[in-house]
Structure formats: structure tokens, C-alpha cells
Design a protein that fits this description.
8 strands, TIM Barrel, eight-stranded parallel β-barrel, alpha/beta
Length: 357
């Protein structure tokens, strides 16, 4: 048996929000498998992103406080991911006042893991790494959080980030690592934004560049975006060998839009670390599916896996879609309800959502 790294959920996807009850169900399902960290950071929560300087409405703030308390009871560290939108371009006094107020609220809510997320934003700042490190240290002096983590603007080797958000500054990662206090953790997604494989060799290089082990922000089984939301991501994890454990400070997954179904691959990740070289992703999927779905529904989902995950909505005929709908209506289970919503197109994430959230 291999040692398992600290595992976590980082709710960081675009698209429709989970309900608070769904979040509780995810925590309850995954805490026994070693998921001891939860960051609340959905892109659709504007008060963490484009309207970050405004306080959450009272009902949402109350729900956040209740969820923080629930996580404590489950022995799960509750975190928030704040995206102070493009603040590094103009960190002036009004921005500092708004950020200080936000941090004070997070302390009142009981946030123990605070993440400052600089991902998916345009930058016109030449000394980007130094500016971002200064902001992180400013936050550290004013936050009561036990752990501070940053997501860099360039959080992967993937050249798509340079195409969309502008060319990364030369040696950005090394400069950020040198400037940051050693206690600050850094998120990293791998060689790609949605990495097919994450290897010990790659992580060793990133650790050397940052001067610390990264926390993996793993973009599987997330399925946001116009193309990915047409597919259910259900299969067991692959391409994440247990040997990665030596080169990471933690492993957090960005979950799928479907809260019950996402726990199936999440459980396989925990198993892959425990079993090491003995891990078998197909067998792990079957066991996790039975645990989450029960035997009958697990068998049905397994039989339909090629359609649900590989073919996707756009390649399912209307006749086949009707047949699948009739089939899953027979099951009284939240996962079956999620499949039905997906078949109806209710989880579709549009390009407009991604551009405006």
C-alpha cells in the first residue's frame, strides 16, 4: 500500500452551481476516502470573481458559514478560492480596502484554507510575478487562514494560456517561486490545462522551478465548457501514478458538473494512491460505481459508458436519447436524476457562460 497525499475538492468549474445540499453529499461521500480539503470557488459565484469587491448577500453568507461548520464536523478543512479580478493590474487603495473587508468576512466564516486565484485573467503587468507575490504577502498579513495557496496566472505549461491571456513573462514560474514565502502553496494543473498524464518527472521539474512542491489542481473529472459538458466524465483516473506523491504537497480535483456522479472517479483516485502499482482503473471504476450507485444502477451505467463518456450528447440520436431517458427514469437515485438532466441538456455550458462568469 502506498501513502496517500492530502486529497481535496476544488469546486472551480464554469456553469451551473451545485446546491448546498449537493456539496454536503460530496463531502460526506469523499471524506472517508481521504478527501480532507474543500475549496469553494465556483466561477458562477460572481462575489468571488467579477464582483469580488462586493459582500455576498446575507442568505449566501449564512449558507457559507453553515457549510464551513459542516466541514469542521466532517474533519474537512474548509476553504474559499477568491479571484480578485485582474486586481494585479491596479492594486490601489480602493482595491486594498475591498480586499481587507473580504478577508475579514472570510475569517468570520471560519475559512481555514484560503486560495487567491489569478487564473483566467488578462494581464498588462510586466513584473507580474513580483506584483502577485506582493499581493499574496499583503493578504497573508491580514488573513487568519491557516493555509494560503495561490493559483498563478500561468498554471500549466499549456501554450493555450499564452494564446488566450497573452504571452507569459519569461521565467514567470521561477520568479514567482523565489518571491513567495515558503509557506505559500502553489496550484499547478500539469503539462496541459486538462492533463492527460501527470508524471513524476514533470512534477520534479515544476518543484525545482517553484522552490516547493506544487498542489495539483487536477482538471479531471471536470466537464465544463461547451464541448466537455456534452460528456459525462465517469471513468477511473489514469495517468496519475502513485509515485507522484513524492513531488506534490497535495492533490485537489476540479469536479464534474454532476455532484453524485463525480464521486465515482474521485474514489478511484484515492484507490490509485493506496494501491500504487497494483491499481487497475477499470476495476476501480466498477468498485466505486457500486459503492456510489448500488449494484443495479452501476451495471447500467457501466453498460452505457461508451455512450455517456465517449459519444456524448451530440452523437446520441433522438431515438437513443428517448430510450436512455426511459431507462434511467426507472431508478430512484440522485445519480440517475443527474443523467436525466444531462440527457435533457440541463448541464450544457455555453461559451457565453465561460466568457462572462
Amino acid at each position: 500500500m502506498s501513502e496517500q497525499p492530502p486529497l481535496g475538492i476544488i469546486e472551480g468549474f464554469y456553469g451551473p452551481l451545485w446546491s448546498w445540499q449537493e456539496r454536503r453529499q460530496v463531502v460526506t461521500a469523499l471524506a472517508p476516502h481521504g478527501y480532507r480539503n474543500y475549496w469553494y470557488a465556483p466561477k458562477a459565484d460572481a462575489f468571488l470573481r467579477r464582483r469580488w469587491s462586493e459582500p455576498h448577500p446575507d442568505p449566501v453568507a449564512s449558507e457559507l458559514a453553515d457549510f464551513a461548520g459542516f466541514c469542521r464536523v466532517q474533519n474537512v478543512r474548509f476553504g474559499v478560492g477568491l479571484s480578485p479580478f485582474e486586481v494585479f493590474n491596479n492594486f490601489d487603495q480602493p482595491a486594498k480596502t475591498a480586499l481587507a473587508n473580504k478577508l475579514a468576512v472570510f475569517d468570520q466564516l471560519g475559512v481555514t484554507n484560503l486560495a487567491i486565484l489569478f487564473d483566467d485573467m488578462q494581464s498588462d503587468t510586466p513584473d507580474l510575478a513580483a506584483r502577485q507575490a506582493d499581493i499574496i504577502h499583503w493578504v497573508a498579513e491580514r488573513s487568519g487562514a491557516e493555509q494560503l495557496t495561490v493559483c498563478p496566472s500561468y498554471y500549466s505549461d499549456d501554450p493555450v494560456l499564452d494564446r488566450v491571456f497573452g504571452q507569459r513573462p519569461e521565467h514567470y514560474l521561477e520568479h514567482l517561486g523565489r518571491a513567495l514565502d515558503p509557506s505559500v502553496q502553489v496550484f499547478w494543473t500539469g503539462e496541459e490545462v486538462c492533463s492527460r498524464e501527470i508524471s513524476p518527472g514533470h512534477l520534479q521539474r515544476v518543484s525545482e522551478a517553484l522552490g516547493r512542491k506544487p498542489v495539483l489542481w487536477d482538471n479531471y473529472p471536470v466537464n465544463d465548457g461547451d464541448r466537455m459538458s456534452r460528456h459525462l466524465h465517469l471513468r477511473g483516473f489514469t495517468g496519475r501514478p502513485a509515485a507522484n506523491r513524492a513531488y506534490i504537497a497535495g492533490h485537489a480535483i476540479n469536479p464534474a458538473l454532476q455532484p453524485t456522479l463525480t464521486t465515482i472517479p474521485a474514489i478511484t483516485l484515492a484507490r490509485s494512491y493506496r494501491q500504487g502499482p497494483g491499481y487497475q482503473y477499470g476495476q476501480a471504476f466498477q468498485r466505486a460505481a457500486e459503492e456510489v450507485l448500488g449494484k443495479d444502477l452501476a451495471q447500467q451505467v457501466s453498460a452505457d459508458l461508451l455512450i455517456l463518456q465517449d459519444a456524448g450528447l451530440e452523437r446520441i440520436s433522438s431515438e437513443r436519447r428517448r430510450a436512455l431517458t426511459e431507462c434511467y427514469r426507472r431508478f430512484d437515485h440522485p445519480a440517475a436524476a443527474e443523467i436525466l438532466k444531462w440527457l435533457a441538456g440541463d448541464y450544457q455550458v455555453t461559451d457565453e457562460m465561460v466568457q462572462t462568469q
